[in-house]
Amino acid sequence: MSRAVRAVGPGLLAFVVYIVFSGSVNTYNIVTGVVVAAVVGFLTANITVSNPGKLGEVGRLGWLIAYAIRYFFIDEVRAHVDVMRRIVHPRMPINPGIVRVPYAVSSDYAMTTIANSITNTPGTVVVDVDTERKVFYVHWIDVKGVEPEVTRGISRVFEFFASRIFD
Amino acid sequence: MGAEEQVTMFIMAVFPIYMAAFILYAVRAVKGPTIPDMVLAIDAMTFDLAAFLVVLSIFFKSPILIPVAIVLALWIYALDIYVAKYLEAREMGE
Amino acid sequence: MSEALYVYQSVGVLVPLLGGAAFALPLFTLVIKRKVFYDAYTAFFSLVALVLASYNYVLVRAEGKPLLYAFGGWPPPLGISYEVDEFSAVLGVLTASVMFLIVAYSLWYTRFMRGYEWYYTLLLGLETGLLGCLYTGDVFNLFVMLEVLSISAYALVAFYRSRPQAVEAAMKYGIIGATATTIYFIALVFIYGALGTLNMADIALKSRLITAGVGPISPFSNGLFGNAFIAASLAIALSLWAFTYKAALFPNHFWLPDAHPEAPTPVSAALSGLVVNVGVYAVVRFLYTLFGPKSFLISFRDAVMWALLVLGIASGLVGALLMAVQSDVKRLLAYSTVSHIGLIFMGLSIGTSSVSEDVATLGLTAALYHTVNHSVGKALLFMGVGVFINLLGTRDLDKLSGSGKLSPLVMGAVIVGFLQLMGAPPLGGFFSKLLLYQSLIEAGLIVPAVLVIAISAVSILGYLKVIYGLWAKPLKEAPKQVAGMAVPKTVVLVMAVACIALGVLSPMVTGLLAGSINASFTDSGVRDYVNSFMSFAIYVVKYLGGG
Amino acid sequence: MGRWQKVVITASMVAFVALLALALSAGGLGFTLPAGRVRDVARWYLFTTFNPDLELFSAMAPEGVTSIVWDYRGLDTLFETAVFFLAIIGSVAIMRDIKTGGGSKPKGSTGLSPIVKTVTRITVGIILAVAASIALHGHLTPGGGFQGGATAAVAPLLILVIFSRYYIERLGVSKNAMLAIRSLGLVGIAVTAFIVLAVTSLQGGVAYVFQNQPKPYAPAGMPYEVGGSLTGGTLLLFNIFEMFAVSAGFTIIFLLLAIPESEVLGVLRGGEDGH
Amino acid sequence: MPSYETFVMGVLAILGLVSMVAAILAILERDLVKAVIFSAIQSTAYAFMYYLLMAPDIALVYIPVAIGLYPAVVLFLIKKTERYEGD
Amino acid sequence: MAININSYLFTVLTLAIFMNLAISLYGIFARPSLIKKIIALTILADTANTLAIMVGYRGWPSPSQPVKPPVLTVLKPSREVIKEFASTSVDPLPQALVLTAIVIGLAVTLFLVFLTLQIYRLYGTTDVRKVAKLRG
Amino acid sequence: MDVLNNVLIVIGEIMVAVGAVADLIASTGMNRFPNFFVRLHAATVGTIWGAFVPLIGASLISIGADFLGPYRYFAAGGAVVTAVLVLILAPAGSHALARAAHRSRAARVFPKVVDHLEEDRGGSDA
Q1: Which chain D residue has the Cα nearest residue C161?
Q2: Does F64 touch chain B (CB under 8 A)?
C-alpha cells in the first residue's frame, strides 16, 4: 500500500479536526485545511497504520454511534454514581485489587478502545496489558471475584462493540 | 432576564464550586506523598481547568480564549507521559 | 518625501542582514563540506558589516544629527527604531573593525578545529548582538540584543566542551547572566509602567520635560502612570546592576576571569575587547541620554554616579592587584580587563550635576578614548599571545617562556599592545589615561585622579612579568608548527599599527572623539537625539491629523 | 558556603523585596488597582491594529498581539528567534560529532505500553491539525507561529518518549533534517522581513525593513486580503515559517537529550583540545 | 457590593498564593523530581493567571514552555544526572 | 480612597508575585544544585513576565462588563466597534514583550541544561560546591 | 430559533453543573482515598464527568448563545475538539501513570484484595 493511499485516513481526520477547530467554513479555512490535511497525512502515514477501505463501511459507523450512546448514557452513569457514592460515603466502602481481565479482539485499535473504555469508567483502571496472553490487569475498586468469568464482566460490553467497529 | 445575563449568573454560581475543587486538587498535588500521586492530581486538576477555561470564555464573552484549553490538555498529557517514562525506563530515549 | 524622513537603509539593513547570515549558515553545512567556503562566508559578512558601519559613521557626520531608522515604517514609540548618534557610530566602527580582524584571525585559528561551522555561526551571532546593542534606540530591543550577544558568548565560552573549566566558566557566566538580563527586564516593566514608552528618545524627552515643568507630552505616548520618580529610580538601579554585570565592574566581575580565558582565543579577544564595551555603552546611554543631567532624577543620578566612581576605583585596584599574581597569561589579561573597565567607569562617572558640562564631556571623551584604546590593545594582546599559546599548546607563563623568539614580529606587536595598556607615552593608552587624569582633576576629584596613576603603576608589574617571560627567558619547548602564519601576523601587525596611530595621532583622535561626545551627550546633543525622533513622529501626527 | 555568605544572600533578598514593596506602596507602578485606562501607546496599538478607515496607518490584522509581535515590533521577534537559534546551535556545538540515532537497539520491547502507543498513533494527526490551525489563524485569533510550533512539537516529543529514539529516527526525523527545516524556516523569516523592501527598491520606491502594510511615507505593502479572506500580509508568512522553525527546534533539543550517556562519553573520551 | 470583577480578583489572589506555596516548595524540596512537579503546579497557576488577565497569547506560549518543555527537559536532565540535591 | 476589596485582592496577588521573585532569587544564589538553580531561574523569569502582564491589565469598564483580550472579533469593523474595542481591551504591548521574553528565557534555559549535562559528564556531579572543589 | 437556542443553553448549563458537582466530589475523593491506585478512580470521575461533560455542555451553550458574536462556532468547535482529546488522552495518561507506578514500585498497592499483576510478574523485573 503506497504512502499516498495510507495518507488518506489521517488526512481526512486532520481536515475534519482543522475545520471543526477553526469553527467556520470559508475559503481560507478550506484552502489551508486541504494543505494541512495533505501535509499531516503525508507525515503521519507511516505512524497511523490504517486501512482506508474500512472508512467506507457505514455499518461500522452505526455500531460506533450505538456504542457511544450506550456507553455514555448507561455504563458511565452507573459507574460514576457508584464511585461518587463511595467517595461521599462516611465509611468509604472500597475493596480494591488488581485482577486479570482476558480479552479476545485482535487489532490494536480494538484493544485500545476496550482499554480506554475500561479506564474511562470509574471504578476500573487498566494498569497493565499483556498482548501475548491477551490479558488486561485491571485495578478494580470493588473486587467481586478473581475468577475470569467474574472479571470478564468488566469488559464484555466494550468487547462486543469494539470487535464490530474495528475487526 | 435575557439569555446573556442568565448564563453569566449561572457561571457565577458554579465558579466557587470549581475553585473549591481546584484547591482540593492542589492540596493533594502538594501533599503527594508519591510522585504519581502528585502528577495524577495535577492531571485531574488541569483537565478540569481546561473545561473550566472553556466555560469562563463564555463568561468573559470572549470565545477566542478557547485554544488555551486544548493546549493545556495536550501538554498535561505530555507531562503524564514523561513522568511515566521517567519512572519506568532506564533511559528517556529508549 | 519629506526631508525629515530620509530613509537610512544602511542603518536598518546591517543588523538583520548579519542575523540572516547566521541563520543561513547551518543550511550550507548540509551541502558544502569544505572549510574554505565557511571562511569566506564569515569573512565576507564581517567585511560587509565593517563597510556598512563605516558608512554609517560617515553618514552621521555628514548629516550632523542622529540617524533614525523606523523598522516596519512605524513611527518610533509604536515601532522599534534604530537611532545612531555619533557615539554609537564610533563604537560601531570600532566593533565592526575589531570583529573583522578577529574573524580574519579565526581563519588561521580554526585550521585544526572540529565543529568550525558552529563556531562561525556563533561568531556571526556575537557580532549581530554587538552591533544591535549599539544601534538600537529601544530599551526592550536592547534587552533582546543583549540576549543575542550573551547566548553567543556563553556558547562560545563553552566551545571547548571537553575542558571542565571552560564548561564551568560558561555555566557561571550563563546562570548569573540570565538572572541579570531578567532583572533588566523587570526594570523595563517599571519603565513602561511609569513612563508608558520603551523608546529611548521618548524616555529622554519625558524625563527632560518633567524637570522643565511641562507636562510630559509626546506624540504617541502621552502621560505618566503612578509615581514616575520611584519607578524610574528603581529601573535605573536594577538595569545598572545588569549592565555592570555585562561590563564586569567590581562586585560583578567574578565571572570574567573564569570565562574570558577559557574561550577560544579570538573569542577571548572579542569578549574582552568588545563585549564589555556594550555594558559601558548601555550605562552611558542610560545615565547621559535617557536620564541625563537635565532629567527629573538629578539627585538619584548623582548618587549613582558616586557609587559608580567608587566601584570603578575598586574595580581598577582589584584587577590590577590580582593581575600581578596570575601565572596563566590569558587569565592575567582578563584581570587587566577588569582593571581597565574600572578606569573607564571612573571616566564616565564624572558627570554629576555639580560639574560643568565641559568637564563631564571631557570625562566621557576620556572614557570613550580609553575604551577604544583598550579594545584594540586587548584584542591585539589576546591574539598575539594566542599565537604562542596555540603553537606551544599551553597557557602557563612558565611553559611559554621565551616563546616570543618564535616570531619576533608577533612579539613586537605584543609588546606594543602591552605598552598600550600600560600607558607608555607614544601610544594611545598614555593619552587616554592622561585625559582621564586631567578630567578628574578638573572635576576636583584629586584622590581618584591620583588613584588612576596608582592603578597604572600597580598594573605595570603584571605586564612586565609577561613581557619578560615571553621575551627575555630562554625557550623551553619546541613548537608544534610555525609555518603558515601569514594571516595572524598580518592581523597583529595591523592592530599594532593601529595602536601606534591612536597614540601618534592623539590630538586628531581626541578631537574626533570629543566631537562625537559633544554631538551626543551635551545638552544640545541630547536635544538632537530627541529631535530626530520627534520630527518623524510629528510628521506622522500631522499626516494623521490631516487625513 | 560559609554562614556569613548565606546571611548576606538572605539579607540582600529581603532588601530587594523590601525595595520592590516600597515601590509598590508608593505607587511606583501606579497599579495597586489596575487603572481603568490603558497607556497612550496601547490606545494607538488598539486603534491601528485593524482599522480599514485608516488604510495607510494600520497593521490590518485583528490580533493585536500578533501584529505587535510581527509588524510593529518585528525586529524584536526576529532576534528572539535568533536567540533561540543560537541556543540550539550552542547545544549542537556542545553535542557535536555525536550521532542522534547511534547505538544498537536493545532487545525486547521499547517504549511504553501498547495502549499508549495506539493512542498516540491516533492523536498525532489531531495534534498537528490543531497546531496548524493555531498557527494559520495567528493573525485572527490568539496564537501564531510560536504557539503553533510549540503545540506541534508535542507530536515528535510524544513519539520519542512513547516509542523510542530508534523509531523516530526511522521515521526520518533526524538532527540534520530538523536543522535543515529550522534553518529554512529562519531564512524564510529573514527573507519575509526584507521582501517588501527588496521589491520596492527594485522599482525605485521607498520601503522599510519589516514593512507590512503601506505607510503614508512608504506607499508599498503586502496585500492584507486575498480572495476575500484576511491574511494579514506578511504575518501569515511569518507565522508559517516560525511554526516550522520552532517545532523543528524543539525536536532537535529532544533528539539531543535522548542520546544515551554511554554514547556521549565514548565520543568525549576521544577528546579534542584547544586554547 | 461584590461584583463580577471581585470574583476574578479573588481567583487571582488565590492563584498568587497557590503559586507562592508551590514556588517555595519547589525551591526548598530536595528531591529534584518533586521540585519539577511543584514548579509545574506553579506554572499551571501562572497560566490560569494569564488567562484571567486576558492574555491568551501568553497563555498559549507559556503552557507549552513552562508546563510542557521545562519539566520535560529537566526530567531528561535528572534522569541523566542525579536526583537528589546534596546537602 | 476608601478601602476597596478589589484593590486589596490585587495587592495580595502583587505581594505573592514579589515573594516569588525573592524565593527564586534565593534559589539561584543559595541552593547548591545546578538543576535547582535552573528551576529557580525559570520561576524568576516567569514571575517577571507575570509582573509585566499585570502592568498591562486594566480595571473593568463597569462591574458587569469584563475586559477583553486585545483581539478584534469583528472582521468588518466600523468606527464605533473600534472605539468600543479600544475601551475594553487590555494593553497588548506587555503581552508582546512577554512573548519575546518567554522565548528568550526558554532558549537560555535550554542552553544551560546542556551545560549542566556537560558539567555532570566532566565532573560527575551537579553540586556547585563539589565542582568548585574538584576544579582546584 | 430562540427556543432552540434556549434549550441548548439549558442543556449545556445542566451539563456544566453536573461537571462542577462531579469535580467537587472527585477532588474530595482525591483527598480521602488511601493510595494512588484508588485515587485513579477519583481522577477518572474528575476527567469524564468533571471535564468531558462540561466541555460538551460549554460547546452547546456557545452554539446557543447569540451574544458571543461571530466567533461562537469557533468556541463550540474548540470545545468539541478539546472534549474528544480529553476523552482519548486522559485514560491513556492515567494508564501510563498507573503502569509506571506499578512497575517502578513508586506507589504501593495497599490495601488490596488481590494483585494478579504482581503474581504474574513474579516480582522479578521492574
Answers
A1: D94
A2: yes
- pLDDT tens-digit profile, chain C (547 residues): 445 467 888 888 899 999 999 999 988 888 888 889 999 999 999 999 999 999 999 998 988 888 888 888 888 888 898 999 889 999 999 999 999 999 999 988 888 888 888 999 999 999 999 999 999 989 999 999 999 999 999 999 998 888 888 888 999 899 989 999 999 999 998 888 888 888 998 888 888 887 766 666 777 877 777 777 888 888 898 899 899 998 888 888 888 888 888 888 899 999 998 999 999 999 999 998 888 888 888 888 889 999 999 999 999 999 999 888 888 888 888 999 999 999 999 988 888 888 888 888 899 999 999 999 999 999 999 988 888 888 887 788 878 777 777 788 888 888 888 888 888 888 888 888 998 998 999 888 888 888 988 888 888 888 888 888 888 777 766 666 666 788 888 888 998 998 888 888 888 888 988 898 888 888 888 888 888 888 888 888 777 765 4
The fold for domain F5-63+76-135 equals Helix Hairpins (1.10.287)
Measure the N-to-C terminal CA separation of chain G; round to a whole number of Å.
Answer: 60
Tell me the residue range of the domain where E38 lies: 4-80
Contact C169/C255 with Cβ under 8 angstroms?
yes
Q: C400 CB near a chain D CB, below 8 Å?
A: no
| Residue D3 belongs to some domain of the structure | no
| d(C-alpha C250, C-alpha C256), whole Å | 10
Sheet arrangement for strand A135-140: A97-102, A135-140, A124-130
Taking an 8 Å cut-off on Cβ atoms, the answer to whether G85 and D115 are in contact is: no
Residue with cell 526584507: D194
Measure in Å the smallest separation between the Cα of B43 and chain E Cα atoms.
10
Give the residue on C whose Cα is nearest the Cα of F103: C144
Supply C437's cell numbers: 587624569
Residues 22-61 in E contacting F (C-alpha not used; CB under 8 Å): 23-24, 26-27, 32, 35-36, 39, 42-43, 46, 49-50, 53-58, 61
CB contact at 8 A, A97 and A108: no
The answer as to whether D20 is a domain residue is no
Whole-angstrom distance, CA of residue C503 vs CA of residue E86: 55
Alpha-carbon gap: F68 to the closest alpha carbon of chain B (Å)? 7
Subunits adjacent to chain D (3 or more Cβ pairs under 8 Å): A, B, C, E, F, G
The answer, for F125 touching chain E at a CB cutoff of 8 Å, is yes
Do E and A have ≥3 inter-chain CB pairs under 8 A?
no
All structural domains of chain G with their residue ranges: 2-121
Query: What is the ipTM score, two decimals?
Result: 0.93
3 state SS of D106: coil
Tell me how far apart the alpha carbons of residues G33 and G42 are, in angstroms, rounded to a whole number. 8
Q: Would you call G24 and B7 a contact, using CB atoms and an 8 Å cutoff?
A: no
Q: Cα angle vertex D126, ends D121, D130, to 5°?
A: 150
Which residue in E61, E73, E77 is closest to D147 by CB distance? E61
Say whether the A–F interface has 3 or more Cβ pairs within 8 Å.
no
Domain coordinates of chain F in residue numbers?
A: 5-63+76-135
**CA-based nearest distance B23→chain F, Å:** 16
Looking at the domain assignment, is residue E87 inside a domain?
no
* Pairwise CA distance, residues A68 & C11, whole Å: 64
Q: Select from E70, A41, C26 the least CA-distant residue to D157.
A: E70
Residue D132 forms contact with G (CB below 8 Å):
no
Distance CA B55, CA B8 (A): 10
Q: Which residues of E touch F12 (CB under 8 A)?
A: 13, 16-17
Does any CB of chain F come closer than 8 Å to the CB of residue D90? yes
Q: Do A94 and G33 touch (CB under 8 A)?
A: yes
Q: How many other C-beta atoms lie within 10 A of the C-beta of residue D155?
A: 26
Does D touch E (3+ CB pairs < 8 Å)? yes
